[in-house]
Amino acid sequence: MKPKSVSALVYKVIDMDKTLEFYEKLGFKVSKNDGRMAIIYVNWFSMEFHVANDINDTPKDGPMVLVSVELEKFYKGAIDAGFTLESELQKTVNGRREFSLRDPNGYLMVFFEKNKIITLAQCCLDESWTPPVPTNIKNHTTN
Q1: 51 CB-contact burial (10 Å; exposed 0-12 / middle 13-18 / buried 19+)
Q2: Cα–Cα distances in Å, from 6 out to 3, 57, 104?
Q3: Which of 94, 96, 90 is nearest to 75 (CA)?
Q4: Is residue 123 part of a domain?
Q5: What's the CA gap between 60 and 88, in Å, rounded?
Q6: DSSP string, 59-100
Q7: Could you tell me if 27 and 88 lie in one domain?
Q8: Are 35 and 85 in a shared domain?
Q9: Does any domain span residue 107?
Q10: Does any domain span residue 135?
Q11: Which of 35, 37, 42, 68 has the fewest beta carbons closer than 10 A?
């Protein structure tokens, strides 16, 4: 058994207009909005929003949205646009730099920049560890 693809992540929202305004301000595009259901996207990734039907159908702590960005530029843009940050720009234990904020429904969004090069030593928690030097490599010279 193997799924063909993931069709969508669905998020329950309280206020569709406020939610779409928030995501559009971040640079997402709206591809469909009928007032009860909307689809937004950036590049190939899309998310669906459905208006919560009643008190038992409201947003809960749910999925986290990870967004790859040009970090310095996007961080400054988020501050300039007046977003309230959940966490300041920080470096994670694996060396990735990121910051986060919450959307109007309380979902956590983490904005990060992919590392260009990550060495094995950078991935280890013990920074004093270095990989062993191979002893079976012959020294080659060119003429």
Answers
A1: middle
A2: 8, 22, 25
A3: 90
A4: yes
A5: 23
A6: --S-PPEEEE--HHHHHHHHHHTTPPEEEEEEE-TTS-EEEE
A7: no
A8: no
A9: yes
A10: no
A11: 35
| Residues β-bridged to residue 42 | 45
**Residue 1 pLDDT level (bands cut at 50, 70, 90):** low
At 50, is the pLDDT very low, low, confident or very high (cuts 50, 70, 90)? Answer: confident
CATH, residue 26: 3.10.180.10
Put simply, whether the predicted model's pTM sits higher than 0.70 gets the answer: no
110, containing H or E segment: strand 108-112
3-class SS of residue 31: strand
84 with 31, same domain: the answer is no
Quick one: 69 and 122 in the same domain?
A: yes
19, exposed or middle or buried, with CB in 10 Å at 0-12, 13-18, 19+? Answer: buried
